[in-house]
Model the fold of this input.
Amino acid sequence: MNEFSLIEEFFADCTQKREDVVLAVGDDCALMTVPSGCELAVSMDTLVVGVHFTAEADPAALGHKALAVGLSDLAAMGAEPAWATLALTLPEVDRAWLVEFTQGLSRLARSYGVQLVGGDTTRGPLAVTMQLHGFVPRGKALRRDGARPGDGIYVTGTLGDSGLALRARLEGLPLSQETLCCVEHRLDWPQPRVREALAIRPFAHAAIDISDGLAADLGHILKGSGVGAAVEVEALPLSESLRASVELDQAWALALTAGDDYELCVTVPAKYRDRIRAVLSALDCPCALIGTIEEEPGFRCRRQNGASFIPQQQGYRHF
Ligand code: ADP
Ligand code: MG
Done:
């Protein structure tokens, strides 16, 4: 099987067709139309074997996750997903693997109306690079530089579950079967907060998705906005699975520093306190107010009693 028949068989038609795509897979470039009045939001992420996943990883989960992390970036900008391009490096052509990979990818793509419009296929150590394209009305993107003193800091869902799954997998941390199942699902099948992000876009000053740990990612907002933050650890949203598995201070540390949560962290002015809760609860999305943006730069993490809490680990860094 050559690379052209591989592309034709697995990727040319694996997602739904969109009206704004003039020309998709098969020519030198794909051609698409951006709606007038919108900016184009573009993000790219790479998953590499041995770094982000192992060679034995479930190919369906890999196809899902490669797209999910890009959708999460679009969500963090308040952008509506539209198109994807995929650069795939494969050690060999394994049909069974490709069938599952494209199934994981197409299922998620269809559920968000995303069309795969092009890509590149090469031979080498397994790596998946996904580029996502979405739309955001001009000037309305949720940037990292928009946070203002007095904003509430909100987090969707729960934090630290993927970090717990990773520790179980890499360090052999013993977990009950039920807990392992819950947290591995969070790690392998992340659900990007796309609808939630679009609903909160009118009310938020700044947003980021939590991929490298809350402390690191909120840190990007603080730096970008030239502000600081006070966060109360007791307010961090923790799942029952996490609470039941480790000591509370370890759970807080995981929630603050472990990656792969793909939840949203948003800063919202005080006047929209109720709106933010209302729009998220309408989507059945848990939301926690964890702290406040302050003028004084720095990330201050405190216990309810005022003592500072300093987690041991740091967010994941490649270099
Ligand atoms: P070129 O030599 O012009 O770069 P390629 O052989 O790389 O062309 O790709 C042929 C066509 O197939 C292009 O339209 C490209 O976008 C598409 N394509 C290649 N690999 C993939 C992939 N993994 N998924 C989707 N489309 C792909
Ligand atoms: Mg090419």
